[in-house]
UniProtKB/TrEMBL annotation, chain A:
<feature type="transmembrane region" description="Helical">
    <location>
        <begin position="166"/>
        <end position="188"/>
    </location>
</feature>
<dbReference type="GO" id="GO:0015658">
    <property type="term" value="F:branched-chain amino acid transmembrane transporter activity"/>
</dbReference>
<dbReference type="InterPro" id="IPR001851">
    <property type="entry name" value="ABC_transp_permease"/>
</dbReference>
<feature type="transmembrane region" description="Helical">
    <location>
        <begin position="270"/>
        <end position="291"/>
    </location>
</feature>
<keyword id="KW-1003">Cell membrane</keyword>
<dbReference type="GO" id="GO:0005886">
    <property type="term" value="C:plasma membrane"/>
</dbReference>
<feature type="transmembrane region" description="Helical">
    <location>
        <begin position="297"/>
        <end position="318"/>
    </location>
</feature>
<protein>
    <submittedName>
        <fullName>Branched-chain amino acid transport system permease protein</fullName>
    </submittedName>
</protein>
<feature type="transmembrane region" description="Helical">
    <location>
        <begin position="91"/>
        <end position="117"/>
    </location>
</feature>
UniProtKB/TrEMBL annotation, chain B:
<protein>
    <submittedName>
        <fullName>Branched-chain amino acid transport system substrate-binding protein</fullName>
    </submittedName>
</protein>
<dbReference type="InterPro" id="IPR051010">
    <property type="entry name" value="BCAA_transport"/>
</dbReference>
<feature type="domain" description="Leucine-binding protein">
    <location>
        <begin position="67"/>
        <end position="417"/>
    </location>
</feature>
<keyword id="KW-0732">Signal</keyword>
<comment type="similarity">
    <text>Belongs to the leucine-binding protein family.</text>
</comment>
<dbReference type="Pfam" id="PF13458">
    <property type="entry name" value="Peripla_BP_6"/>
</dbReference>
<dbReference type="InterPro" id="IPR028082">
    <property type="entry name" value="Peripla_BP_I"/>
</dbReference>
<dbReference type="InterPro" id="IPR028081">
    <property type="entry name" value="Leu-bd"/>
</dbReference>
<feature type="signal peptide">
    <location>
        <begin position="1"/>
        <end position="33"/>
    </location>
</feature>
Amino acid sequence: MRPRAWIEPDAPLLRRVAGIVVVAALAAVLVPVLGSNYIVTFSFQFVVWVALALSWNVFSGNAGYPSFGHGVFFGVGIYATAAVLEHTDAGFLVAMLVAGLAAGGVALVVGLGVFASPRFKGDLFGLVTLALAFVVTTVVSNVAFLDGGTGVFVREHTRGLWVGGGIRHVFVVGVALAALAALVALATSRTRWGTALRSIRDEEAVAESLGVPTYRYKVLTFAVSGALGGLIGAPQAVYLGYVEVGAVFALNVPLFVIMMTILGGSARWWGPAIGAAAVVVLREVLLGIGSPELSQIVIGVFLVVVIAVLPQGISGAFDRLRQPGRSGVRGASGVSR
Amino acid sequence: MTPIPTTRRALLRHRAQLSAGAALLLVTSACGSSDSEGSTTAVPDAKIVAPVAGMTCNEGTKPTGDPIVVGGSLSLTGPLSETAKVHEGVAELVTKWVNDCGGIDGRPLKWDVLDDQSTPAQVASNYERLIGEHVDLVMGPYGGANTLAAAGPVTQAGYAFPTHTNGAPQELIGENHFPAWQFDGTGDKEHMFDAGATTLWDALKSSGNPPKSVFYATAKFPTTLSLAAAAKSRFEKEGVKTTGDVEYEFGTTDFSSIALRISQADPDLVYLGGLGADTTYLYDAFDSIGYTPRSVFAALPSPASLAGLDDEVNGLLTLSIFETDSALGDTDIARYFGKQYDEVAKDDDLFPLIETQAAASFAAWQILLTGVVNAGVDNKAIIAWLNSNSVDTIAGSLKFDGYNNYGGDINRVTQIQDGKRVLVWPKDVAGGTIDYKP
């Protein structure tokens, strides 16, 4: 492998960083000012799913280790926030940091153990992360400090806090975290870090033989991905107002995240954001058709059709339109767009 | 699952498989099943009357003008859909009923429901959407977490918030909250479930053979944990011995180890703080070890699960706020509701029995409609009126003057007797007497 700097600060990269910051800043100002409560609420859900999908892709998409445990990190973040707000006088920022650290810590511990053995690849890794959901759910529902099965009423602990001042404040936090997830996702597309992850996905043994410290990359990136998932759990706890185990650790969270990433395409750092946008908007539009069963079936069929017609997801189609004849998938040492 | 993909083609194939799996799960989660076996509640000759006191029923008069739109979010798909569809059925029923009566002040009633897919996050968004669309009134969603998720936007927008099944009554919503499933709000929030426990104890005591020992098996679910804690405290105060106390994860289906522990303790009463089909699973586990419990109380079982157990659950006790064969069912409104609900149950494949869910759902509508009849389509006026008056509902007269706008506890005790549900306590509304000899 060609020795490269950790980050290659080129003009396109700086433009993209600036683009993310500007879009986030505009959204944080314009949506709360111009949007109705419904628009802001919808936009908050939008940025939550974007952040979750982007953060899932940071590890699972880049390294080729599909995790079914992203909902756990999100849930750990929600419960960590609830616990800090319920049991301490620390503000929301502290709660959010604890949420990120707690979720990242769980991911780190799991990663240290799981990636130590080459057996835990692919499907087995997926199963381990799925089992993680049951373990964490059991812990949370049995530890009274966190929940104990009775649920936690977060809303009564956010009264008087800035973030408890309404959905507009929660949205601003959500946008900031989605921007952070986007910046991290962008970083994986332009750095040696991302190249190493993709080499793991393409051929881990070869990457290892070429000197890529695959264990270190996997452990740390899984922790970063988990921490981002946990961070976005913090505003979600405030938004929900009341959290209980069954709803927080529902399996539909990782399911939707994976679906969004596949739909948007995991080969480009921004693909999951497009997938999240497509699913969230489609779901909201279909709410109005008056047939809930049909709307879910439509989403499922839409997913299958997109995969059949656009195997690299929606972002792959964008690339094909922009540069006809060029394959959009990167090689092991390639740079993601 | 397939091995990890190492080539582009394999990667794409792997994604397609993941996608197909995700799509299949979405589709199956959208399609619930429903057990429609059971006894009918129909009263074939019931005549139409106004659904609430103070409203006139002008049968045959077609309502005109702008509809009064009531918006709501229900879990029409996902894990909560089975029960939420009861509330959807009742909402459709009430809307048709009001319009068959000529509407309210001549205006038709319209029900505008959005599916929240059993996720509280979507519940809050749905209410914001409905409020943004300027619905006139709102009806609460199904379940405690969903109710509290909805409470934020609904309260902020100044709407009256009738709720049918808020299982987390101790969490403060506000003066706009009008709960149909009432717990005791006359004291502090720590003791809201105590009155229900007293009702259960009084029912058992009235048999002349109250239990001397109890084994508690409780689902880790907010409402059941609160109910069980209050019952245990009450029973222990009465000198009843606790022979076992286990909590199990919500969603547990294998009760064999719990059944074994119960059989070893052989208590006078098994207190099952369970929901849904937990009772079925526990009885299956009893069957497999050949144990017959002396007596069982099940907190929140689905009516279908009890009906499915036939004679096996004769004598079983449960909580309910309403039974058709009780004093509460002996009104023209209750009879007509029973007749209409039977038709809705047939059409929507619901279990044809009115107990807590359907009765609370109708009672919530009665609360809202009574507010409209007396204060007009004005949320501020409705809130003020309901806060200073009581409302006659199918579940009894309800007040909103205590903690979190709860009045007195309306949980009652029902017993399965010869395959039928009989409300046995309190005496003033009972349809029969308890038969309890553990």
